[in-house]
Amino acid sequence: MPRSWPEKRRSMTRKSAINIIAAIASSALASGSWAQDRKSTIGRKSTRMQARNDSRAVAPALDKYAQGPIAELWKRPGLTPRDRSIVTVSALIARNLAGEMAHEMNLALDHGVKPRELSEIITHLAFYSGWANGMSAVDVARNVFATRKIGTDQLPQVSPSLLPLNKEAEETRATSVEKQFGSVSPGLVQYTTDVLFRDLWLRPDLAPRDRSLATVAVLIAAGQSAQIPYHLNRAMDNGLTQTEAGEVITHLAFYAGWPNAFSAVAVAKEVFERRPR
Amino acid sequence: MPRSWPEKRRSMTRKSAINIIAAIASSALASGSWAQDRKSTIGRKSTRMQARNDSRAVAPALDKYAQGPIAELWKRPGLTPRDRSIVTVSALIARNLAGEMAHEMNLALDHGVKPRELSEIITHLAFYSGWANGMSAVDVARNVFATRKIGTDQLPQVSPSLLPLNKEAEETRATSVEKQFGSVSPGLVQYTTDVLFRDLWLRPDLAPRDRSLATVAVLIAAGQSAQIPYHLNRAMDNGLTQTEAGEVITHLAFYAGWPNAFSAVAVAKEVFERRPR
Amino acid sequence: MPRSWPEKRRSMTRKSAINIIAAIASSALASGSWAQDRKSTIGRKSTRMQARNDSRAVAPALDKYAQGPIAELWKRPGLTPRDRSIVTVSALIARNLAGEMAHEMNLALDHGVKPRELSEIITHLAFYSGWANGMSAVDVARNVFATRKIGTDQLPQVSPSLLPLNKEAEETRATSVEKQFGSVSPGLVQYTTDVLFRDLWLRPDLAPRDRSLATVAVLIAAGQSAQIPYHLNRAMDNGLTQTEAGEVITHLAFYAGWPNAFSAVAVAKEVFERRPR
Questions:
Q1: Would the CB atoms of C54 and A180 count as touching at under 8 Å?
Q2: Structural domain includes residue A178
């Protein structure tokens, strides 16, 4: 409402400042020192009770849903917790939801995603969700890695030996895209070949199947239905099963919202029907 | 531009710190103490002049549009200020625009949205815009509720008696969705029935018509056109008029951008044409 | 994952506080005073090494891509650096990616975008990407302008003399939109005419061609494919060439993600085919 639209801006800034000071104060009270508190981001036990109180102070049912259907979701057999973590982190990066990102990155590492794999997911999604989204993810991951004492020795090389290229399939792809769009956006076509399919996708520290999983998660989470058919087919070529794909959609209903899941399931249905099982 | 892409990141962090300190300082100057300043987030008068100066320092015409067409928008007869607030808050949650959220939540409460209704809107949108969006909204609302001394006695119960289910309509829906998507994503189909339509939608502290209003606002604001027909029809079944629906689109032109409004109006036209008035 | 979902929220707040304090401390150490540090946001040299170290601590290949293909991108002949900056800033505003925004606004000014033009881009995008996105951009630009000592004398007037209206074309547009959507959302139709096409688009401090460039960038960056045909045609009527449009898509592959670029190139192809060169 306009009568007061500009006021909120300053009051938010001020409130943020107050919150931050309050958080510093409560952190100091709770854990005695910041150093200790930093450590507790791995254990993540000491602050749990307080945070659940927070959500109870606003929307008490959310905790019930978290303890019920969402807890159950992560245990469903159709997709491993590791895969669910790749999907969840990818969705948060695609939607630039930094608030939940540190927690989910920590959880991904707990679920067996290797630091070098998380590093490659971020690199991959700098291209598939936009450079600035990748940079935000770098900011969050930097703290996660520092807290867990993950050094550069656990990260991918800048220019490693690439996985072998499936020349025939790639030439078919490149020719088709060149024919369709070469005269509309020659730069796009060229970079897609040179930077993405003959470089990024061949980097060895993230399996093509997992790269596809992250890509499909981004497309569903960002509502980019038009790009799902190509990448869902590619994901299945790379080893993702139809059961797993269906479960990715179920998972993202919770983490990217029901509407994105329903738009995706309609596209997936068509993709599955046109593809021999 | 790449020559310096990484620099901005650190300078932003530092600039944020400077802004926060500046905000603390100016707050202390303006209101004498943080305690007083906290109080002023209800009145929202003391900082208005300063904030209008801020926008005038960048884009002077924005204040003119705020005082002109946007002020007029909120007074248009097609939708009550209360409904406009539900639409605005829902759009901000869907787009995770935390900067404006506290102000609009305060305004919603001023416009007669009950705390228990705002609580249910957040719970509802944790499912319709994604869990992390819901959590961001919890963070903002926690401060709004604390400032207004809204206690848990004004919030919905965790597990209240649910509204009666329209069994026939719900079975038609469930059967249709199962038939369409049961083999593609069985988990999605199951959770949609169990968690959404036989639980969330029946929670009594937000009227089904208002739940629909929030849902439709999210779909328009997030550009999820493919999901609008089902939910716009459901909203009208729940009592939203075509005039109100048209005015929701007008309102969201300002709050979610013209392109989303134009994509929505084309879908709404088709929905209206297929539906007897 | 739900077992601990609420914990992360508090730990993030605390971690943000720690980061901010750390940034203040490191800033003080590095540059001796905040005043000096503020100045360095123009030069942007002193912190570059540190920031590159940050990305190397997470995703070492990103720096390689920044120094390679992205550096090359900005030098491609199809679009001037000034136009690329308009496209980049518009994409960040559309996606509310505040983290990169200050840097890209500074770069835009370095590339010859006038302060009054940047001001008008923000005003324009408050309507084309939503009011709250515009307000976020105001917040960032306020600091950029203050740091560069850009005063209100360099900003557009609130109500300047408008550019002449092409009455015939505008009446054709208005009549067509009224006929299509006048009974669905009369308010949308009215505001589109009064506020957008007979006011905002005629403001003289941003050329119609540049206004179109920003609008098309927003549509591509936000994945609003359905609105691309009208505005891409309008952009070409306003002087954008097909080569430039194709290069906008190439540019946005990096800055808004590959999927948005591929959705856009398919639409652009159709638009180009229906339009005589």
A1: no
A2: no
